[in-house]
């Protein structure tokens, strides 16, 4: 009796024969947990699809890191430390929490996500591509002029980006204004939530605390401030440069309801916390502290300020990172080894669109 082979089965058979796969055909090993991202429904630990959700989010986090390595290497720039520490949070948000529509980015009933630590936009670009806001192959042009994938996001050029970003500390205030505006839209919008992902070093900016003070004053329980507490900023350790402790007490003093993820890389913990956050709106803005590791999953990046701003500069270095990511997670999650090998082969360092007009001299005149 003949069995009909599905497209996926045929692709896997071809991979086994040729030892090669298309690294941009994500459907080989991942699909979004929800068919309709405009809808959100609770998935709790005793539900049958809870393990499926966790695995889908873990695979997504692995893909975010892997494609982000490819993207940054092609662009010869980027911020791997912060992009890697936010991977699981982005995975759970887009795969489970946020309501949005890639085919209609301006859908008026969407939840709102702001990336305030916008130097870590390579990770956000990757998750937007994986949810088909634009083709994933376009990530190759990250940072190139006119590509629509600027090194800091531009909401006028990139679908899925809610606000342009540059200087740190500015976007929490935008998020407060957006949450307040949504409240004034009337009861039909009461279920919408504004999420803003903020860097821990960014919390040294006074404008962040001005925004927090306003959020507490207006009792914005449709605002969730997520702090990526990876303990490292551009030039050193936060505890040495300018500590933000005691963070929980400070947020409570600003009238926030505070949640804390003990391990911000544990997708099960994140899913459970977001379930609680959505169910516990009590007339206070909400803060979620994510205890994460800067540069998570790449050994030389972890807790290392030197990799805050630096990205792999050549194919070999990127290949080492991609292999390390696969050894840690890809193998366990059933991703074929050929994926990271093919992704390395697909690296093409894109030259600048324009030459450098400045003459290079050894010293100033």
Describe the model:
This protein has helices at 7-18, 50-75, 80-85, 87-97, 121-130, 171-184, 206-217, 238-241, 247-253, 267-279, 315-333, 337-345; strands at residues 112-115, 194-199, 223-229, 232-233, 236-237, 257-261, 286-291. By secondary structure, the chain is of the alpha/beta class. The strands form 2 sheets. Strands 1-2-3-7-6 form a 5-stranded parallel sheet, sandwiched between helices. Strands 4-5 form a two-stranded antiparallel ribbon. The longest helix has 26 residues, at 50-75.
Outline the secondary-structure elements.
Blueprint: H1 7-18, H2 50-75, H3 80-85, H4 87-97, E1 112-115, H5 121-130, H6 171-184, E2 194-199, H7 206-217, E3 223-229, E4 232-233, E5 236-237, H8 238-241, H9 247-253, E6 257-261, H10 267-279, E7 286-291, H11 315-333, H12 337-345
Parallel strand pairs: 1-2, 2-3, 3-7, 6-7
Antiparallel strand pairs: 4-5
Helix pairs in contact: 2-4, 2-5, 2-11, 4-10, 6-7, 11-12
